[in-house]
Amino acid sequence: MLEDKSKTGPPDQIQPSTPAAPSESNQGETATPIPRMTDKADTFPLPESASRWQKYRHWYGSHKKITIPASIALVIMLILAIPVTRYPTVGLVLKKDFTLRVVDSSANTPVSGATVSLGSISSQTDGTGQAVLRGIPVGKKTVSINKKYYEGVKSEFTVPILFRKNTPEIKLVATGRQVNVTVTDKITGKSIAGVDIKLADISAKTGSDGKAAVVLAADAKQEDATLSAKGYNSKSVEVLASASEITQNDYNLTPSGKIYFLSKLTGRLDVVKTNLDGSERQTVLAGTGNEDSSDSVLLASRDWKYLALRANRGAGSLLYLIDTATDKLSIIDQGNASFTPIGWEGHNFIYLVDKEGVPLWQSGNQALKSYSAATGKNLFLNQTRADGSSSDDYAAEYIQDYYIIDGKLVFAKSWEFGSDSQKLKPAELSAGFYSVAPDGQGLKTLKTFGYKVYETAEEGGVLSTNYYSFGGYLSKPKLAYFNLYNSDQDSERYFKYTDSQLIEDSGLSKTFSRGYETAYTYLLSPSGQQTFWAEPRDGKNTLFIGSADGGDAKQIGELSEHTAYGWFSDNYLLTSKDSSELYIMGTETGSPAIKITDYHKPDYSFYGYGGGYGGL
Question: Can you spell out the DSSP letters for 504-554?
Answer without folding.
Answer: E-GGGHHHHHHHHHH---PEEPTTSSEEEEEEEETTEEEEEEEETTS-S-E
